[in-house]
Each structure stands twice: as structure tokens, then as C-alpha cells.
Amino acid sequence: MTVEANLKILVAVTGGIAAYKSAELVRLFVKAGADVQVLMTEGAQAFVTPLTFQALTGKAVRSSLLDPAAELGMGHIELARWADHIVIAPATADSLARLSQGMANDLLTTVILAYQGPVTIAPAMNQAMWSNVITQDNIKRLSAFHPHWSWVGPDAGEQACGDVGPGRMSSPEAIAHQVLGAATDKTLTGKRVVISAGPTRERLDPVRYISNFSSGKMGYALAQAAQQAGADVVLVSGPVALQVPKGVRLVSVESAQDMHDAVMKAAVGSDLFIATAAVADYRPETTAAQKMKKSDKTLSRTIDLVENPDIVASVARLTTGRPFVVGFAAETHDAVAYGQDKRVKKQLDMVVINDVSVPGLGFGSDDNQVTLVSAEIQESYGPAAKIRIAQWLIEKIADHL
Ligand code: C5P
User: Which atom of ligand 1 is nearest to the CA of 280?
Assistant: First the structure.
């Protein structure tokens, strides 16, 4: 597998016995044509010497946040800007804990905090440390804020400490494949892609609104996957607590009407529109100019709701400058039949169907399972992390553009 020579990969090595395998990982990246910089934590240097990585990359390893000479060359913020992809391999329990708290007291945590691009993490630790609820909670926390980060492994098997179980770092080949696979398929080069994501908020008065639990994770993962596939991406998003993927243009909106207006502006003349947003179907007919006051013990008041525009259907109805249109359908039963029905009614080219009756998948979760349908195809993928689902969807959609 080879990549464009300008793919800049920062490999962060933290302190575990699997650090010796990272030398092979770095060699694979260099061999594929990537520009590789290695960063080592203090602990990592107890396992492998920086000289090993320097010999493989031809660059001095970065390890200290407070190194005046290194900071003069490329400061830690510049290092974060420089990287197209950061790979943390091995990622120890300690490094995951520190990253999950947003710490910035060494070079690794600082660079990651200042970085907005794709990250691939290959955890490695003792099986009991891996299974510990605190480690799992740290991973959940990281995944919740960074749905577009990609995880590989750990594998199960015999460990250096003699234990048997999950915690071995994945093979350098598997990690390289995951990182380079995402960076090589430039199937959307030159394409303009618009994605709607997140919930909308429909105001009742200046301090209250009607909304839903959409996390926006699927839309943000798709934005990153499309950007990595070479597209120029506009992400029209309702209010969410997610990091915007590097290189993606964000248009922040609040209500369904705002989202409609922003999407229509961006989508006319674009190549692809993917609607992942959970748009409120209705909004209050009137929004009170002042905060509604609490008065009695009971509140007897009717809030009249009026229909919001159907954004994806409006784009699909465009007669000039119409992009290829993909919608989402969350269904609890007869998912494929209802999804196909939605595709026909809204005149969409493709629909991604989520069966939301499966516990732990879909809405708000980090994982998903989907079926992509068009007039010709019906293909399923998952359960898998949303970023993997997104990469698969982008690949499939690109085939049909
Ligand atoms: O009709 P339903 O809400 O189930 O359709 C879901 C699909 O339609 C999603 O792709 C969603 O983003 C889109 N949609 C929209 N505007 C609306 C309602 C739904 O774009 N007002």
C-alpha cells in the first residue's frame, strides 16, 4: 500500500512493552511513502531508545514539552498543525486516562489537545487493566467527544506478563492497514459534499426549546470520512458537543428553518448531500418574546405546533443543481421496507437504514449497524464504530455517484 508522499503521520509511542512493535509500524509507514515524525513519552524511552526511531525516520524524536531547542524548530502547536494523522501505538492505560481528562502536561497530551484531525489508537496493557471499569470509562469518554477517532485492537492472547486475555497491541500490519486504508482511497477528490447533522432546537421563549437526543456523531464521522476521501465538505450542524473534524467547514445552526436555509444555500450545485440530522418535525407556531412566567400550581396551556420544512426532500426536489441525495431512516420494525418507502416518498437516491430497536446501537451510541438501499442495491454493514460505518458508507456512495 502506498500513500501520497505528503501524508504526514505523527506516531506517538507511550510506555509499554509493545513499544518495540512500534518500530515496525513506523517502518511500514515510511515504506508506504508517508512523512513520519515520532513522539515518545518518558515511559516509552524506558522500553525503546529514541535512536531506533530516529534511524527509521531520519528525524529526531520529539519527547519533551519544555525542550527549548526542539520548540524553536517546530513548536508543539505547530506539530499538531503539521500532522495529517496521529497514531498512538501503543496507548497505555495511563495515556488513555490522561487524554480522557484533557490534560496538557506533557508533549503527547498537549499535541492531542491542540489537534483536530484523525487519530488512530492502538491500546496495549495487561488484560485486567484493560477490563478495569475505569479504563473502559476513559475510553467511552474519549469516544463520546471524538466519534471520528479510530480504535484498533487490542487483540486477545498471551501477554508479556504471563496473563492471557485482551490487551495485546494489534499487529503493526493491522494498524498500518487501518491508517493507510483511510488515507489512500481518495474516491471523492474534487467533489463538494454537504452533510446535515445533530438535533435542531425550536424555541418556545428566550430560555426554552423543543429538541431531541441526537448526538451528531454519525454526521461528524461522515464529514471526516468524506474529507479524508478528498471531498470539500460543508457540515451544517445543530448544537452538539463534538470536535469539528480537521479540514471540514462548519456552519452552525439552531432551528430546522435555519438548517433548511443553510443546507439549501450550500447544496445547490454540490455533488452529494447526506442528511443525518434529526430535524424537529414541528416548531411552536409562536415564540414568546419574553420568558414565560411560572404562575399557578398547574399549567393549562396549549402550544400549537406547525410543520417544519423537510430539508432532505427539498434538496431532492431541486430541479437545477440537484446533488446526489442520501437520507437516513431510523426504524424499529420492518426497517428495510419502511426505509425503501421513505426513499421513494422523499425522492432520495439512497437511504441508510438504522434498526434502532437493537440495544446499544444507533442514537447517541458510538456504534451503529446500517443497511444502505437504493433502487438497485441493498447492502448491510456492522455492528461497528461509527467512523468505520462512515468510511464504508462513503466508499459505497462514491461508487454510485
Ligand atoms: O421522515 P424522517 O424524519 O424519518 O426522515 C429522516 C430523514 O429525513 C433523515 O435523513 C433526516 O435528516 C431527514 N429530514 C430532513 N428534514 C426534516 C425531517 C427529516 O432533512 N424536516
Answer: 21
